[in-house]
Amino acid sequence: MSTPVLRRVVRRETHSPRTVAMFVAVVLLILALAYLGLEIVLSLAAQPALLLGPATAGAWLVGLPTAQPPALVIAGSAVLALIGVVFIWLAVAPGRLSKHTLDAGKRAVVVDNGVIASALAQHLSEETGLAREAIIVGVGHRSVDVTVRPGAGIPVERSAVQSAAEAELQSYRLTRRVRTRVRIERPDHTEDEL
Length: 194
Prior knowledge:
Blueprint: H1 4-14, E1 15-16, H2 19-44, H3 54-67, H4 70-92, E2 95-96, E3 99-104, E4 107-112, H5 113-128, E5 135-139, E6 143-148, H6 158-172, E7 179-185, E8 190-191
Parallel strand pairs: 6-7
Antiparallel strand pairs: 1-2, 3-4, 5-6, 7-8
């Protein structure tokens, strides 16, 4: 992927534009401004407020630090700060889609994580001789988790499954290196190893 256009296309295919988060934020902002505008209009028309008039709300905000218990003010401030941090995180951090890119020379190949997981599970099923349903594979951005559930009395070496999974993943030529974790689960007990 040497051209800038190709890199941009791959980035668009592997990263989320955060459209949903932005839509929710804009809708909430519009609703808050519409409510504020309605309260101001009702106040100017000398009508009773729906919830809280602008003058009453302003006086409440000014007197909030002294009128409320300090613990309540601190808790409310912490909640507002947390909401602010979440919105800043959504604005700055890139959203990643569940896809990987493969090294295909001058071509761009983007593959869904589910496709990689299914192909790896099928390969491990053929390598180990176990049923396809006995092998569960999860693919993330940085790791691949393989869970093998052989029946009672069926010998399966974790190291053999680990090396088969790593060799198969290497043959896919993923551009981002992933860590492989293999777990063998027996019906009577669970053997967790990294």
